[in-house]
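Just wondering, does anyone understand these tokens?
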Amino acid sequence: MRAASIADVPGAQPRLAPWLFLSPFLLVFLVFTAYPLVQAMVLSLQQTFGPQHTRFVGLRNFQFLFSDPLFWTALRNTVVYSLGSLLIQLPLSLGLAMLLETPGLRGGRLYRVILFSPSLVGVSFAAMIFAVIFEKRTGLLNVALHRTIGWNLDFAWLERHVMPALIVASLWMWVGFNMTYFSAALKNVRRDLLEAAEIDGAGPWRRFLHVTIPEISPVAGFVVLLSMIGSFQLFELPYLLLNSTAGPGNRGMTIVLYLYQTGFENSDLGYASAIGWVLGLLLIVMTVFQRVLVRRSEAA
């Protein structure tokens, strides 16, 4: 017995079959992606006074944004967090991956589970943990330092060193996560190239620079891009860790946190939409720049 096909449907045309199968995706895309993007662009050209009152202002939101000192503070903090996370997190992730890929290492699977598990707990739980660690007087860090070197129990980590505290918290969460990518990449490094380099007299450091790094560069580029996008979208960690504020002197203000405060606390959804579009353009530029660098490195 022959199975039914699209040609058996009365009035159906074979050329419409692809559109029929694509229609669920197209419907979801139009409703949940295209329409919100168009509405966000329209909203970015308006000034809002609550949900019911709007006024068309054209590009004034964008003009004000580039002269807004708080936006530049948020951008600077986000860039510092991104660079701090990348320059510490990715080398540490790669180092741990190489250590766990050492032949004959015992308990490698257990160490991988231990290092990867913080990425499973969620940002909210991580914020609660580090709030307890960095708390004054009763915080685990101050208590430990006080008992060992007589540290001041009233030292306020989350007031004096907001960005380092955020970077440390992100390291705890994402070092093991990125380590898994590097571990997978290291498993695919061609052993014949490493053996040939060793026969030619290359030491461990030269083999790492001239064989391992080029072999894992596509994965490394992907991890860098993923980390940069995640860093520029930082919101939950500072919002929860700093008790729904940006910290003293706005030292914990990020772009997304500023967008949230503008749109939902100040009810200026138009200006918040303009911030969102600028953030989106920044991410697009970083993505294109990263892809260009990866292609050039692969061509070389």
Summary: The chain has a mean pLDDT of 87. The beta strands are 46-48, 54-56.
